[in-house]
Amino acid sequence: MNVGFIGLGLMGRPLALHLAAAGHTLHLWARRPASLEPFKDVAAHAHTSAAEVARHSEVVITMVADAPDVRDVTLGDDGIAAGAKKGLIVVDMSTINPNAAREIGAALAAKGIEFLDAPVSGGQVGAINATLTIMVGGKPEVFEKVKPLFEKMGKSITLIGGSGAGQVAKACNQILTGVGILAVAEAFALAEKSGVDPARVREALLGGFAYSRILENHGQRMLDRNFKPGFKAWMHQKDLRIVMEEAHRMGLMLPSSAATAQLFNALVGSGLGEDDSIASLKLLEKLGGIE
Amino acid sequence: MNVGFIGLGLMGRPLALHLAAAGHTLHLWARRPASLEPFKDVAAHAHTSAAEVARHSEVVITMVADAPDVRDVTLGDDGIAAGAKKGLIVVDMSTINPNAAREIGAALAAKGIEFLDAPVSGGQVGAINATLTIMVGGKPEVFEKVKPLFEKMGKSITLIGGSGAGQVAKACNQILTGVGILAVAEAFALAEKSGVDPARVREALLGGFAYSRILENHGQRMLDRNFKPGFKAWMHQKDLRIVMEEAHRMGLMLPSSAATAQLFNALVGSGLGEDDSIASLKLLEKLGGIE
């Protein structure tokens, strides 16, 4: 299949290479020529615009930073829509606001272009190992057409619902992981400040209802003082911004998400944004006077 | 062994019966004579005061509501300390403030009485099946003496640290479960308000880092609209009060716990206190105008 891929960063590059390895022909466009380097030895054509990519592709995948970038690359000047043949499928794998995804989907539909929102979780390791969780919103028949591509990039692939539903599921994921990491950090800070070994607390609690993959994995990394990302705090901050934007738009009270979003603001503000999200423990320790 | 047991409620009764079944002789005192009924057919002596219970016991276990009750039954008029032989071990299995536990332990130590704080998690079902998680604070040599009794009541038994450390671990557990339940409720409310099926979101997220026993079990009960306790919201509210008391006493910022404690205040205030903690979903739905 001729597959366009736009956004060849830490996540996009390994995903595009999986598709090439599976025998697909890639059509690429990148702002920085260096991004095309890793594709020298595979079936890949470099183009001069997103519109040119679209002109040669049946499916175009985008994996960029945020909603304005997706809007730009799909609907902007020389964007995908400008070069699309009728029936083109655009798959956005970026994490953006669900409502923005719905609006972009609707604008593309008006031009006869199909759209799926398909954000992922599992990070760079999941992208490299093709073990991502992919959460998809869109039409079932479009999902079925793209599924063989998803299967080269991820392990758990779910059509959640209509347009935007993939982004909603991703927002839910970021609530559970963001709040979950902060809750573990708070429990550990309480133990430390009380003179109790958080390692023994973690060990005792892993067997009960407090068990979570975050207590197990992120909790161990907190004990190891390994704050290397993983998933950077500023990216989690952005995803919690999306959650709070949606909560505000719809009139929904999300108290633990709101408190967590504020803590992530403070993480970025205090210079810990490039650390992993578990650096929330460091900040609580600092504010609690814990050595 | 002669074992005193004070506090024969939903949790205490099955635990005391496990000890009797293991061949121990119980010494009981209860405010309400009806509480002694289930012990008619086992080796159990009823006494007229906690002091009398202590006079006949090597170990006295207490399982009552809160710190003032523990203080009363241990150090009050006709309390355990008034009847204790030197070397008596008092084991408090109630959930109380860690600092209050340390103070009670110190007051008993001044009278030559040993003390362990040993709160539990696992609820009434765990008590009946003797599968509780028991988190213990106190001296290792005292812990070893009581361990055979703990093993008749629980499955996972951990000496966390010195006096109060069991209560600290329990406070950590209540952070992780309280915040964890609210985070799942918030994710589900966001999905519902967005017109997305929370069951599909849960299914997609169970395979990733968002996995928690709470997403699996409590999440399923939320989908089933089964708000029957389980663990009552007003009890979780009390345990989060303890967390916030300690945070305040020590000067520790715990943002997600604080937001969760507020939501639990609202649960009790709005008449949902007798429901399970997962009724937090009902409250978010109500406040978000979700039918």
TrEMBL record, chains A, B:
Keyword Cytoplasm: no
Coiled-coil boundaries: none
Domain 3-hydroxyisobutyrate dehydrogenase-like NAD-binding: 164-284
Domain (6-phosphogluconate dehydrogenase NADP-binding) ranges: 2-161
Keywords of the record: NAD, Oxidoreductase
One Pfam family linked to the record: NAD_binding_11
PANTHER family, A to Z: 3-HYDROXYISOBUTYRATE DEHYDROGENASE-LIKE 1, MITOCHONDRIAL-RELATED
InterPro entries: 6-PGluconate_DH-like_C_sf (IPR008927), 6PGD_dom2 (IPR013328), 6PGDH_NADP-bd (IPR006115), HIBADH-like_NADP-bd (IPR029154), HIBADH-related (IPR015815), NAD(P)-bd_dom_sf (IPR036291)
Keyword hit for NAD: yes
Active site: 170
Organism: Azospira restricta
Official protein name in the record: NAD(P)-dependent oxidoreductase
GO molecular function: NAD binding; NADP binding; oxidoreductase activity
